[in-house]
Specification:
Blueprint: H1 3-23, H2 28-35, H3 39-46, H4 54-64, H5 68-72, E1 91-92, E2 97-103, E3 113-128, E4 136-143, E5 146-150, E6 153-157, E7 162-166, E8 171-175, E9 180-187
Helix pairs in contact: 2-3, 2-4
Amino acid sequence: MTDQDAEAVLGRIPGRLKEARQAQGLSLDAVAKLSGVSRSMVSQIERGESNPTVATLWNLTRALQVDFAGLLALDAPRRAIEVIRADQAPTITGHGRGCHITILSEPEKVGQYEVYDIRFEPDGALESEAHGPGAREHLTVLEGALTVRSGETEELLRPGDTARYAADLAHAIRDAGEGARCFLIVETP
């Protein structure tokens, strides 16, 4: 192993430890309790501000249930497939009229990049105030027909149609008939 390889290995440790912790949904405190490594040390290691000893790495990998050798490997670790079953997906209630919103994106992405599956009952509507500056929405109709309004502009969309529009203006999505379903992505810079 060359010095360059050694630097590459050491450079990957912080990110791989953080990924392993986040993949299991563990807080820094939880990892500290499980590993016996202080919370501040775990945080410093994840930020690349501290070089852990072999014993510390061993304790962290055991607590995170990751392979010690895999953590140090030069090739990228394989990522597990995260599955959220339909009956376990989080939903939003109390927004809109006659619409059922299922959250498909990761919770930590809220405010940056959000993905929703929205089902509208006949005459259902989702009306929104302006989001932050530069926010945009990307909506694809899967079933039925929807009317999309952004500011003063309005368009009728049918299955397979996609609309991209400013969401930093008041905007609305309304069922245009017998119920509908869409896939919505909200981007906020």
